[in-house]
Amino acid sequence: MSNSILLYPESTLVYVVVVAACCLVAYLGEGHESRSYPAIIILILAVFVGLRSIDVGIDTGHFYNHFNSPLVFGVEPGFLWLMRFVSSLGATYSYVLIIAAAITYSCFVMRLWELRDKLSFPLGVFVLCSLYLPYTMNTFRQFIVLAVLFWASRYFFRREYAKYCVIVFACMLIHKTSIIALALLALIPFQLKELKGNARTLALLFSLSMPLLIVVAGFFLLNSGALSSYLKYLIEEETGRTGLMALIKLLFIFLAFSLSRGGGYRRSLLPDTISRFIAAIAIFGICLEPLNVISPYLDRAALYFSVYQIAFFAILYKNAPGRSREFIFAGIFVICAYALYASLASNGHGIMPYSMASPLILFGSEA
Questions:
Q1: In which domain of life is the source organism classified (predicted)?
Q2: What pTM, to 2 d.p., does this model score?
């Protein structure tokens, strides 16, 4: 298989510059209260991802055909409404991509910004760009809901479970697999000790009803045929990928915790409840990543949990004591840099070569 990095060195350089620019802005913004820093990062990524041509990303051209078709089947109504709304304004398909990218990166970056007292904001941005930038150019519809749900975790950690559930159900209008995010409600019993009275009872009911809710909703979706477009991947796609990267991540996490406990260090890598919850969710997701051995598409279900590694890795580095800090930074950098390299080299997301749509397309010209 040819290496796309060697075939398209200019595109590789563009990706590296974009990631580096975002990390630099994040580094300059650390320690400041101004939201102009995350705003600049969001702008860079929204323009870069949103103004890509229809040849960048496998799904990009697919939904371009939907945008120009009067009859569309197999697309959730929320995303269809977005395309129809943009079309009704006489705008071009690029506006759909820009809106999708703006929502995605606004939610991801602003949630990291909210958690900056618990994590390293620059490293969080680096992990986000290295692990998931290629995905947002291909499976961008799912990444809209992943980003929204990542941001909505603020309500879960505040124990505002009803708000979190409403957002999950709203996200199902864009991607039905969002229902998987309800699994976080299984963590509610671990928060109960800090709740009292009616709040405790309501939280317990939410937690106990979660498995039943997922089963009932899944049964309904399966029988309605609504998930047929996803289930086909289980039988049509070739398998053969391994979970080696997941094993490397788990080994790194084990070594990080081991080193942080040695040398007489007493500082915890996970000093508070929210950090521990994020760690548990992320590690659970990483453990699910080897599902791609069964099907290349099954690990997309794991994304609803593994996406929290964006914050988890940045938390590890922020709280690392002594010399373990250097090891943790090096480990995170190698893992994420290799992930970006692998995505660009294999071109599995169809993102190489990168090309930007003509600015004229924003004004209704296809030139």
A1: Bacteria
A2: 0.85
